[in-house]
């Protein structure tokens, strides 16, 4: 007996969208991938660099400064050699003034804005504040003018240039204890000197009295030197024992100097007269002042002396059986200053 198979009726799928079905679209995308879009081209930003410009600027400035420094050192060496021939006080004073003027002039030349050394490496330039870097890149000369306010670096062999020492313009008039001029007033001293030398009284600013006489304060070096050079024209009328300017003394303390000296036969020698010769023998210098110290030892056979020189003694020395001489570090001044 024959049978027939009945097929269910075909019902349309309400979700079938044909090729637009999501599954079909996904398969199509996998089979035919769309070409990927290229990323938009980007331009790499390069950092701002001033290395080349700054290095060249630093090299040029350093070469210019070193050239001036070489000339300066050569002049200093010749100046030092020439100054050795001046040994008298007036010559040395004038040479010192000339040296001060010479150093001042070169100090200004070496610290001038156009010759001040610039940083010689990029690391030194990079260490500057940003504002300074910008100024260097755009206004190099202005940057150099700012740097000139700083002191130039000290290089090996270069003399250290400092401010000139203040010049002492006083002239000291030494008087004996009983000199009549001690009883005068400052106006009388000034009028006498002015009249004798024909000097404008305004060039003699003050005449204060000091322990050993008078100190004449002049207005300038020329007047000070004039008073010393022509002292024979005015000092004798005042009974002056000496007329001098301030000196730098190197003073030594000599303890336990014997009060009495005897020769081979027991004859007593003059200790005070022998000390001058002994000092020159032991030191090679002539002292400018020898005086007893304020505080003396309890031993009646010895005493303590203060011996002053214009130059330091560069060796160990003593006087007869005394203790070794000891340099007093504080600079001694003429007795008028005490």
What can be said about this structure in brief?
By secondary structure, the chain is α+β, with helices and mostly antiparallel strands. Helices cover 36% and strands 15% of the residues.
Class based on secondary structure composition and strand pairing: alpha+beta
* Total strands: 11
Note the total helix count: 9
Q: Per DSSP, what share of the residues sits in E-state strands of 2 or more residues?
A: 5-15%
- End-to-end gap: 160 Å
Rg on CA atoms, Å: 46 Å
Helix content range of the residues, please? 25-40%
Largest sheet: 5 strands, antiparallel
Write down the overall mean pLDDT: 76
Q: Using the alpha-carbon principal axes, give the shape.
A: extended
Low-confidence stretches: 135-143, 157-163
**Secondary-structure element string:** HHHHHHEHEEEHEEEEHEEE
Instruction: Tell me the domain tally.
Output: 3
Region (Disordered): 136-160
Biased composition (Low complexity): 146-156
Describe this structure in words.
- The chain has 338 residues and is α+β, with helices and mostly antiparallel strands.
- The chain folds into 3 domains: 51-147, no CATH class; 170-245; 250-337.
- Helices cover 36% and strands 15% of the residues.
- The strands form 3 sheets. Strands 1, 2, 3, 4 and 5 form a 5-stranded antiparallel beta sheet that branches. The protein has a 4-stranded antiparallel beta sheet with strand order 9-10-6-11, with no helix packed on it. A two-stranded antiparallel ribbon has the order 7-8.
- A hairpin with a 2-residue loop joins strand 3 (209-210) and strand 4 (213-218).
- Helix 5 crosses helix 6 (140-147).
- The longest helix has 33 residues, at 51-83.
- The radius of gyration is 46 Å and the shape is extended.
- Residues 135-143 and 157-163 have low confidence and may be disordered.
């Amino acid at each position: 007996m024959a049978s027939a198979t009945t097929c269910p009726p075909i019902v349309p799928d309400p979700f079938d969208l044909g090729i637009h079905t999501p599954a079909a679209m996904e398969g199509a995308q996998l089979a035919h991938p769309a070409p990927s879009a290229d990323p938009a081209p980007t331009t790499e930003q390069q950092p701002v660099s001033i290395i080349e410009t700054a290095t060249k600027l630093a090299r040029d400035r350093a070469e210019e400064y070193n050239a001036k420094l070489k000339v300066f050192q050569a002049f200093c060496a010749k100046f030092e050699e020439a100054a050795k021939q001046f040994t008298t006080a007036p010559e040395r004073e004038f040479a010192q003034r000339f040296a001060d003027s010479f150093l001042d002039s070169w100090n200004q030349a070496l610290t001038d804005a156009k010759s001040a050394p610039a940083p010689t490496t990029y690391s030194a330039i990079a260490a500057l504040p940003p504002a300074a870097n910008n100024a260097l890149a755009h206004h190099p000369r202005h940057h150099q003018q700012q740097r000139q306010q700083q002191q130039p670096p000290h290089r090996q062999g270069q003399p250290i240039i400092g401010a000139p020492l203040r010049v002492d313009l006083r002239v000291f008039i030494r008087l004996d204890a009983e000199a009549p001029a001690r009883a005068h007033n400052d106006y009388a001293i000034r009028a006498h000197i002015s009249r004798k030398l024909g000097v404008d009284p305004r060039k003699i600013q003050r005449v204060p009295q000091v322990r050993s006489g008078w100190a004449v304060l002049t207005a300038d070096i020329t007047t000070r030197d004039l008073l010393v050079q022509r002292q024979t024209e005015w000092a004798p009328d005042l009974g002056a024992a000496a007329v001098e300017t301030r000196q730098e003394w190197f003073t030594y303390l000599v303890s336990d100097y014997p009060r009495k000296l005897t020769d081979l036969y027991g004859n007593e020698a003059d200790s005070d007269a022998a000390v001058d010769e002994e000092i020159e023998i032991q030191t090679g210098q002539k002292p400018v002042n020898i005086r007893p110290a304020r505080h003396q030892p309890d031993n009646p056979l010895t005493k303590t002396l203060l011996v002053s020189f214009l130059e330091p003694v560069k060796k160990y020395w003593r006087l007869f059986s005394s203790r070794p001489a000891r340099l007093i570090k504080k600079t001694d001044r003429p007795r008028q200053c005490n």
